[in-house]
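Model the whole thing, not chain by chain.
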Amino acid sequence: MANTCSICGNKIKALEPTFRTSDGKIDQQCALKAGIKGGAGIDYCHFHTVQDIRDIIESGSPITDIKAELKKEKEQQKAKANQEKAEQKKRAKHVKAKQKEITNEARSKQKKMLNEAKVKQKETTEKKLAIIQDQFKAAGVSNLFGTKKEVVALPGILADNEVVKYATSGTVNGNTVLMLCTDMRVLFIDKGLMYGIRFTEIPLDMVNSVNYQKGLILGSISIVNGAVITQINSVTKETAPIMADAIKKARNEFIKPQQTVTQATPQKSTADELREFKSLMDDGILTQEEFTLKKKQLLGL
Ligand SMILES: [Zn+2]
């Protein structure tokens, strides 16, 4: 690109000073017309466009103190930059505040939903526990000694449609357990201090036999399930036979084959019917013709 002045278009000679503006070069002649001399003038040009210099020339009042002018320009630019920075900061702050607002809103919404779900679950659990306690009452459950925690945990263990047939407290291997017979299984529940809930179950159809022994105060129950014998001790002597009986009854109920609802009426054979009609004829109730007609019908002739 040719080295020409952006204002007058003259060629800038090799040894002539060149004034570089932010968007073009101007020669010394045009710079002087605007009052711009070397030194501070060169710096001044960096801050301005060709159009800025042209405006100064056209205004007819060239710059008289280029150093002061440069200082003023620098300060103005600095002030402008600071203002922009402040505005940017303000905008950023606003965006941040807005984001925080959105986040907080989302968080509180989530918290609310979580709380609602918790309340609902608590309600469901309480409802289920009330149903279980009603079933206890109906079954005449009398001894739940030391198994309060286990009872409270039942809504999380029993199926929604599972019905408690009997319950009692006892010990298995020295640990206090809640023993439960439902319409599906026999359960031993132990809620320890260090670990969570532990339970073992024997499905009713796996129970081979149930026995109980009675002592003076306490009794025990043993359940045979395949090769395994589960022994429950420290059961009160009153509840031991009731539990054993409840398990037997529940098992029989559980494994009872499905009975057909309609009772099949005994089917009479064609021969039996023919004999009946024959005796009616013999007794003179039917004529020979009537008997023959019936006989043809029955034999499909
Ligand atoms: Zn020029």
